[in-house]
């Protein structure tokens, strides 16, 4: 069993109350202006020590905490990726903003409500505060994928019976891939433990004989017994890839969230695209989605690598303009 060491934020060793008292005691006989000056210096000191307790320790990957759970799809779990404080912070940012979760329509790409997905959720804008920024740095460090390729973190709450049926994270509509290209990887962070149910399941995963003999189904809900499943543990993070290294969709990345049977499940998702998601795109449907398209097309990649360059009607490629197919 891998021991989970969860880093704790060190508390500032000075309290605002004790420092205020010290300043007030030491300020007998000083003018109001001098007092206000001293008090503002005090606030800067205390505030600085709080924020440095969030940011001071650089995140270092500990390979002993990472388990590869599947090769088809490529999926890994990092135990204790988030601290308790980071988990609680994301939940507290989300709690008052939750709305019923939606899915993307396969044809139009428009968001719509569906019985396929019954959780509630909200998005936290990138780098919203020092803690969110640090979590996003940790994700980039672990995945080796640029921070700017990520979407805003989506926090989800699943109550009793709520679930997300198996689906793909890559899109099949044209609208959603225009910005940043396909989603290539997903980091799913568990912000709470779940007493029963709520597993993330990969029903089409190819289970290796080694994995089969090392897992017991006793603790899994029925929904999670096909393929490979991950039981939510507060602080753990699941990374999986929706595209093969060749940048084409991997059908074994089909995954879903099983219904919660007992307790409540909180999770946070970071979807990461093949390209910069911060770049806004125009309305033109005939455009290249990679700056290198022209160069690649000139050396024959449209015919050598048509899946990526041209794609199909359902899954358009990245260099349709340079390949003269639109
Ligand atoms: O909640 C889960 O376990 C799965 C969530 C999910 O599939 C997603 O956010 O794309």
From TrEMBL:
Sorted UniProt keywords: Dioxygenase, Endoplasmic reticulum, Glycoprotein, Iron, Membrane, Metal-binding, Oxidoreductase, Signal-anchor, Transmembrane, Transmembrane helix
Signal peptide: none
Spans through the membrane: none
Residue ranges, annotated region (Disordered): 200-220
SMART domains linked: P4Hc
Catalyzed reaction equations: L-prolyl-[collagen] + 2-oxoglutarate + O2 = trans-4-hydroxy-L-prolyl-[collagen] + succinate + CO2
Keyword Oxidoreductase in annotation: yes
Annotated membrane topology: Single-pass type II membrane protein
A single cellular component GO annotation: endoplasmic reticulum membrane
Major subcellular location class: endoplasmic reticulum
Similarity remark: Belongs to the P4HA family.
Occurrences of domain Fe2OG dioxygenase (ranges): 149-274
Cofactor entry: L-ascorbate
Superkingdom of this protein's organism: Eukaryota
Protein name: procollagen-proline 4-dioxygenase
Domain ShKT stretches: 286-326
Pfam families reported in the protein's UniProt record: 2OG-FeII_Oxy_3 (PF13640)
Cellular localisation: Endoplasmic reticulum membrane
A single MF term (Gene Ontology): iron ion binding
Enzyme Commission code: 1.14.11.2
Entry-linked InterPro entries: Oxoglu/Fe-dep_dioxygenase_dom, P4HA-like, Pro_4_hyd_alph, Pro_4_hyd_alph_FE2OG_OXY, ShKT_dom
Native species: Nepenthes gracilis (Slender pitcher plant)
């Amino acid at each position: 069993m891998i021991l989970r060491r969860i880093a704790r934020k060190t508390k500032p060793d000075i309290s605002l109350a004790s420092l205020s008292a010290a300043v007030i005691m030491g300020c007998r006989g000083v003018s109001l202006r001098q007092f206000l000056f001293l008090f503002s210096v005090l606030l800067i000191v205390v505030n600085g020590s709080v924020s440095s307790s969030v940011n001071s320790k650089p995140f270092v990957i500990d390979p002993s905490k990472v388990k590869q759970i599947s090769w088809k799809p490529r999926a890994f779990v990092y135990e204790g990726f988030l601290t308790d404080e980071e988990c609680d912070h994301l939940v507290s940012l989300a709690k008052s903003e939750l709305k019923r979760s939606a899915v993307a329509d396969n044809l139009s790409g428009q968001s719509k409500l569906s019985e396929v997905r019954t959780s509630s959720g909200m998005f936290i804008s990138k780098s919203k505060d020092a803690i969110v920024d640090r979590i996003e740095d940790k994700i980039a460090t672990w995945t080796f994928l640029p921070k700017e390729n990520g979407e805003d973190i989506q926090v989800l709450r699943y109550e009793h019976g709520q679930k997300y049926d198996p689906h793909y994270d890559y899109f099949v509509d044209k609208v959603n891939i225009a910005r940043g290209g396909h989603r290539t990887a997903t980091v799913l962070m568990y912000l709470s433990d779940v007493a029963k149910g709520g597993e993330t399941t990969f029903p089409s995963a190819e289970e290796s004989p080694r994995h089969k003999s090392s897992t017991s189904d006793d603790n899994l809900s029925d929904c999670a017994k096909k393929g490979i499943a991950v039981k939510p543990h507060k602080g753990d993070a699941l990374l999986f890839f929706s595209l093969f290294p060749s940048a084409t969709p991997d059908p074994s990345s089909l995954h879903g969230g099983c219904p919660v049977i007992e307790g409540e499940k909180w999770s946070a998702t970071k979807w990461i695209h093949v390209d910069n998601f911060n770049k806004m795109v125009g309305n033109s449907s005939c455009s290249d989605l990679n700056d290198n398209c022209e160069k690649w097309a000139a050396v024959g990649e449209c015919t050598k690598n048509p899946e990526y360059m041209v794609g199909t009607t359902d899954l358009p490629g990245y260099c349709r303009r340079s390949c003269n197919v639109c």
